[in-house]
Amino acid sequence: MTTRTVLVTGGNRGIGRAIAEQFIADGHRVAVTSRSGDGGPDGALTVQADVTDAATIDRAFSEVEAALGPIEVLVANAGITKDALLLRMTEDDFGQVIDTNLTGVFRVIKRASKGMLKARFGRVVLISSVVGLYGSPGQVNYAAAKSGLVGIARSLTRELGGRGITANVVAPGFIETDMTAALPEKTQAEYLGAIPAGRFGRVDEVAKVTAWLSGDDAGYISGAVIPVDGGLGMGH
């Protein structure tokens, strides 16, 4: 295993935190971003950044680079939800989710790519969702953003693949986190009934796949969408 400098956006809670903890356990140099600038896991450098604000992203990257070295692995995980049925969803609800979950990913990739191109090495992993290709009522904004990550990863692969940079998507299904726990019980029951595995996923299961995609053994995988959903999406 080659030790790398890793940055996980939104790594202070949920799936992002589990991913950061996995990289720490694997012996990497790890930094996480949070909007408040605190709350990261033990062993990680926590920096303040809002993915909707390019200036804070640049400042966070500079802080990580000064402390840990050039960022070699970027896990774009930060995201929000503002669920509502189409006719009740406001343009602001739609725009905020797109700006955070899609445009925010563009911002962090653009900043990270500078160092990766110079080093002729990089691993970009985008945390999407089964919803991106499977769809979900009340999540037009979220699904649009998460499906857009597939286009970003595949375009990056064609643009930067010859420079030693890979870009892949991990698409979790229903994972046990605070965010999913907030969903109505009826919605949770409907999802459980549709999951062939018959259970919800764990954050560590997403983390292990993400870490593997970022490692030496996955150097010839790029533009892929890896589902971690117990069969819920079934290839979607």
UniProtKB/TrEMBL annotation:
Pfam families xrefs: adh_short_C2
Domain Ketoreductase: 4-178
One GO MF term attached to the UniProt entry: oxidoreductase activity
Keyword Transmembrane helix: no
SUPFAM superfamilies, A to Z: NAD(P)-binding Rossmann-fold domains
UniProt KW keywords: Oxidoreductase
Top-level taxon in the UniProt lineage: Bacteria
SMART domains per the UniProt record, alphabetical: PKS_KR
Family matches, as PANTHER family: 3-OXOACYL-(ACYL-CARRIER-PROTEIN) REDUCTASE, 3-OXOACYL-[ACYL-CARRIER-PROTEIN] REDUCTASE FABG
Family: Belongs to the short-chain dehydrogenases/reductases (SDR) family.
Record's protein name: Beta-ketoacyl-ACP reductase
Annotated source species: Pseudoclavibacter endophyticus
